[in-house]
Amino acid sequence: MSTGKGPWLLVVDIGVPLALYYGLKALGASDLTALLAGVVPGLISSAVSLARTRRTDLLGMAVVVSMVASAVVAVLGGDARLLLVRNAWISLPFAGITLWSLRHPQPMTYVVTRAMFAPRAALMDELWETDARFRHAWKWITVWWGIATIVDGVVRIVVSYTLPISVVPATDPVITVATIVALQVPTIVLLRRSGSWHRVFGPRRPYSRVGD
Fold first, then answer.
1. What does the UniProt keyword field contain (predicted)?
2. Mapped to the 3 state alphabet, what secondary structure does the chain carry?
3. Which range marks the domain in which residue 107 is found?
């Protein structure tokens, strides 16, 4: 469920929309027109990512659907702020799905991380089966991810409807980075406490079964 995008994400998905918005505003475009133009680079990068990886990316598709839906709603309603909250449309459902996954044998954070680190999948599966501390850590990581993404969505909504429209786009990267950091901290702390961080994410070694 990774986005499949590399370092260009920062340029194409964050830098270019900001440049388009403030550039078009300087040329006299309306907030809605400038924000709509900023959606285009994200759609292009998602299409390129899909063509390059040749597989369906659930998170990436959710982002595309959010961008398209928010653009349509904003145009029909004539309200630029509906475009500003589009990322909350991803954060809040993602938070709900994340917390709901605690009802399943393996929580979503574990499943997603396992998929992203495929070379470590066998080791992670072995730890999941044999190490109760490892399983406990991932369940609490999932709780914190759910809480963090709820906060992310609420903050985006509040910011989008309280600050001047021209200020909100500049806050989006700040919120994004803050959320990413907030997600990493409990992951690292809890896995270190479980004693499995270095074994899973340290320098790669030939895989051997736990206890060998």
1. Membrane, Transmembrane, Transmembrane helix
2. CCCCCCCHHHHHHHHHHHHHHHHHHHCCCCHHHHHHHHHHHHHHHHHHHHHHHCCCCHHHHHHHHHHHHHHHHHHHHCCCHHHHCCCHHHHHHHHHHHHHHHHCCCCHHHHHHHHHCHHHHHHHHHHHHHCHHHHHHHHHHHHHHHHHHHHHHHHHHHHHHHCCCCCHHHHHHHHHHHHHHHHHHHHHHHHHHHCCHHHHHCCCCCCCCCCC
3. 87-212
In this structure, are 96 and 190 located in the same domain? yes
* Segment 12-49, tens digit of pLDDT: 667 788 888 889 888 988 888 888 887 777 777 767 76
User: pLDDT tens digits for 56-83?
Assistant: 555 556 666 666 766 776 677 667 888 8
State whether 107 and 79 are in the same domain. no
Report field, pTM of the whole predicted structure over 0.85: no
157-194: per-residue pLDDT in tens?
999 999 999 899 889 888 988 998 888 898 999 999 99
150 pLDDT above the threshold of 90: yes
**68 token code pair:** 């398209």
